[in-house]
Design goal:
The protein is built from 11 helices and 13 strands. By secondary structure, the chain is an alpha/beta fold. The protein folds into 2 domains: 237 residues, Aldolase class I (TIM Barrel, Alpha-Beta Barrel); 54 residues, Alpha-Beta Plaits, CATH 3.30.70.20. It has a 9-stranded mixed β-sheet with strand order 7-1-2-8-9-10-11-12-13. It has a two-stranded antiparallel sheet with strand order 3-6. Helix 6 links the parallel strand 9 and strand 10. The longest helix has 14 residues. The protein is globular. The two termini are 33 Å apart.
Length: 300
Amino acid sequence: MASGIIFNIQRYSIHDGPGIRTTVFLKGCPLNCWWCHNPESQNIHQEIVFWPDRCLNCGDCLKACAKKALTIRNDAFFTDKSKCELCASCVKACFTEARELIGKQISTEEAMEEIKKDIIFYDQSGGGVTFSGGEPLMQGRFLQELLLACQKEYIHTTVDTSGYAPWEVLKGISKLTNLFLYDIKLIDERKHIKFTGVSNRLVLDNLQRLTEEKMKIIIRVPIIPHINDDADNILQTGRLMQSLGLKEINLLPYHGTAASKYERRAETYPLKNQGTPSEDKMQDISSLLTDLGLNVKVGG
């Protein structure tokens, strides 16, 4: 039985597919989007984050670390990652939970135990399970086993993906997936590389192949002011959908609630001063796509 690393299981979700859903967040992502609202999802391995506002400076974490990976520099705690073995002794020693271990190794069976708790809500609402991330395709074998287990229980399955993975991985899970939530961030390849760290050629090729396989697909576009909200990118996205025979698109307005997560990771948030798109702007974008004959929904 396969196992994988997740960083959250969110129950009673209503924005990750139809009906009431359980969303399983798999750790690891090959992209590095400037606007990523789950930076803890990017590294496929476990990691420890620090909540400075919870810290009482008691020093219990320092005493607990056998490898002396923790020190104090300029009245602040510093972690030497070359020494840290992620034993989580500092996490266990911190009674205020200022230190948190992100990522949990879990088997398919253990994940299914959590998923099956809400079968009654799936049945009543037309919901099911959504596998998200990070990028769930990074853990292809684990994802495939989870999808197969859900199919055996007649649970509706959705995969929320950037599409950035070898086609063999995507094809391997396609027949086990009832719905794909497929992210299209930018059509211009140079901009895609700049703002996500990777080319979009694989993303677009895989999207075409999925449509040829007759998969149910909803396109998702995060709307990031001054990055991908221009009319040219929006129209190119809409025309791509037209050419592939796709009709459903969700527009996801940017929000900056992830900024504090970057602070806890001692990282700089690339869009620290970024604002959210206005309602008028979202309406303009929606109208452009509606005029192309697409079914537009703002939000998840």
